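Now for today's protein:

——
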Amino acid sequence: MPDRAGPRVYSIAAHRGFADALVAGLVPRYAQGELGLARLTLLLPSRRAVRTVTEAFVRHSGESETPGMLLPRMAVAGDLDLDETLGPLLDPLGAADIPPAADPMRRWLRLAHYLREVEGDEAGKGAALLRRAWELGSTMDRLLVEGIAPIDLMAERVIGIVGDLAGHWTDNTRAFLKVQQHWIAELAERGQIDAPERRNRLFEHAAKRWRAEPPQHPIVAAGVTSASPALAKMLRVVSELPGGSVILPDLDLALDAGVWDELGTAGNPVEPDDPPFGRSDAVTHPQYHLKLLLNRMGIARGEVQPWHRSGHGAAPPERSKVISNLFLPPRASSVWVDLPAEKRRLSGVRLMESAHPGEEAQAIAVMIREALETPERRVALITPNRGLAGRVVAHLERWGIEADDTAGRPLPQTAAGRLLLLLAELVAEQGAPVPLIALLTHPLAGSGEGRARWLENARRLDLALRGPRPGAGLAPIAVLAEEARLGEWWASVADMLAPLFAFGEAEPLEVLLGAFSEIAETLCGDALWIGPDGRALSAFVEELRGAASAAGTVLDPRELHAVLRDAMDRVSVRPPWGGHPRVSIYGLLEARMSRADLVICGGLVEGTWPASPSQDSLLPPAVLRALGVPGGDFRIGLAAHDLAAALGAPEVVLSWAQRDEGGPVIPSRFVLRVKAMLGDQAARHVESEALRLARRLDEAAKVAPHPRPQPMPDAEQRKVDISVTGLDRLRGDPYQFYASSILGLRTLDALDAEPSAAWKGEIAHRILELWHKSGEPRGGLHAIAEQVLDEANAHPLMRALWWPRLAAALDTFDAMIADQKGQGREVLCVEAWGDMRYRDVRIHGRADRIDRKADGTLAVVDYKSGGPPRPLQVKEGFALQLGLIAMIAEQGGFKGVEGEASGFEYWSLAKKPRTDDFGYAVEPVTDDPKKQEKMVLREEFLDETEAFLNDALDKWILGTEPFTARLNPELASYADYDQLMRLDEWITTLGGSGEDAA
């Protein structure tokens, strides 16, 4: 390739494979002599690209006749999206006259300060204010990258546009201009400039220096596609240097001239007063950003020459033409109708549609595993979906394949980052159980020799905290820890965490970060800072502390969690070098210039690939268009170019799922284009084998349906105590009695659980117990109820919804008890425990209340937070609690209670049937013989209770009956043990009689 006059710009077609084709062409051109190649300087877009090109040189050297070579110098232009800095070639010591760049973290915090100053309380506070400040800084960077000075925002055309917009756009634009002016003044005072502006000046400095004194050795810019004006001008200079050239990836030189024109003005308006980007510009086309770059370089597409070398893994040449047809803009795509089959054929490209992301990840892992069976075959997964990438990495571990996701993971998803966030969340939630237990059982917490003991204590505390949330802070937890015999251990943990809860409502962010870091280190030791995530967290904290100290940022400690979450999400932790040498997992940015024999493009759904375009919230689209800033749709074109490059591989699989975690999704517009262009050929491109194998991986051998459980414990195991509520469960569903009373199994409430009916019942019992102990003063129930709800730290929403019903029911009880007292009724005991021996079996339980009536007999009362059992349920022997308590009372089982029982009452807090009143009392027995078909007679109630008790003892406790699951399936029952009895596997086999259908 001899040098020619004018700019030397080349394009490597998509089917050739950029990195390998680049090396295949550079070596014969620049490798004259032993040091020829070493004198070459390669200007690459990112450090990832340096690694990719280095690997390509290694592959080329291994197959050449003279293995081994001195690599060229590789300089990094610095990818803005990867937050990379410029290499020393572009940021030399000779550029000392260019002011240093301001710290982006400090700028973020200072912009929040100025935003608050400009807008006052309307700017928000805490995390919301800092989020807006970050968006404002991002908008400033977009303007600076495009070379737009602040004064350009004051241009007449911009002011005119703003004046015609809606009020909120006008207000936002004014706020942006004011904050920007404050920041510019601060920069001038400190002698600094923003990082994008410094980058632009360095590009201009390099271009000026190289134009005045061309370097002695050649410079080649390869794969740099950023279209910023300053970089474009520098690339123009590089293309004209002696021995220099610019090599672009996937510029479509065969695209019809009319289609090229249809892409739009792309920064080169026809009239001087026209905006740089027209309304009809096809910014979503994969060639648009390359046209923009060429226009800003001042180079026509006809001046670009094809790069005739191919590298390893090149696809058939016709692939590039098909890719070009695939992405034709709207009007030009009408030619699809007349395209012959050979120009629509994507041989080597397969389409895979999965049911859900889990299946997609499994199938991708299967394809990667299969590809590795072929020696030297390389495979790459490209996806912007980090969740999908993580799943694939996990699935590959099944076969011992370590695959690194080179796009990295957000810092909050790493162990070290998560721990710091848990500390902040603990403060934000005021010591809530969920973040507390997550913190104490974190893999890094309590590390060292005492880790096992630490986890044992943490799990015991977990059990103690089950149920509704305790009070705010650490003190209520100490009470529960003491009850669980964890007082000494919890005291040490509380001492460690106490400084977090000692802060005021506004503290310096620097102080907060220091305190949280110290406590995190105390909790985890040096293990917190070890590994890539620990080092990334350490750098993040120190950078933010320094910026916060300089910016003077003050923050509510409860807001720190949201602030850290936003800031840490912007930090990616990339793995060190390593992993399987033939497996690569990339994000879209990392995949550029890379190539493999099999490329799998995963997560091809709308909103992911391409991502949903985000509209700037500060400057209106019309203003950005007038200034010459590409809109949000511009990134769709970049995503399309990434896919076009991937489609150039020899074998490609386009993969997507029908739904995600939230619901059904739409396949990517790129997938729909592929299907539309393939037409009736699409069915031949479907990948089904990988899906079939993925599904078979999880298929287990068929097993017979689980039979209805009928456990048969021996006589010794059967003889257990029976509670007054347990008899109902024994007769209604013997298996549940077996699980709870014989096996001793208990269901666990969730941490921070919603108040259940049982919890409400306990609250009601506690209220009435305290009221009784205080002498049952008239009107005192409300005050006691408020006290109990405060002590239980009832959730505000639940309290607001439940309190009117509770208060109304308590008023009913207050009036009812006062009336009973007037009739001579006397309270004997409240919340009293008692028991009796019956046929050598202990029957025990708690009486909610037992009164002595005026006639000297006893009245047994049972409180219900909901509706009481139906009278027929009592008659049939499935609600025997009142009868058993009466039997215990008559046998002297309750201290201070003696006599015969004649009253059996349910006091319900629920709404009284057929009324609007809450709270009522009802008896499930009757004195009217005419009603005995549906209700048990009062005089027979205790005899029938005893008969049902004897029947249960004869069958199950003292007998040999199996404890059959759901013996009475039509009876409303507890569901605590449904999973244990595997109910769903056999319940449909039951007949109406409750017996097996067989």
Q: What stands out?
A: Residues 992-998 have pLDDT under 50 and may be disordered. The chain has 36 helices and 23 strands. The first strand starts at residue 9 and ends at 12. The radius of gyration is 38 Å.
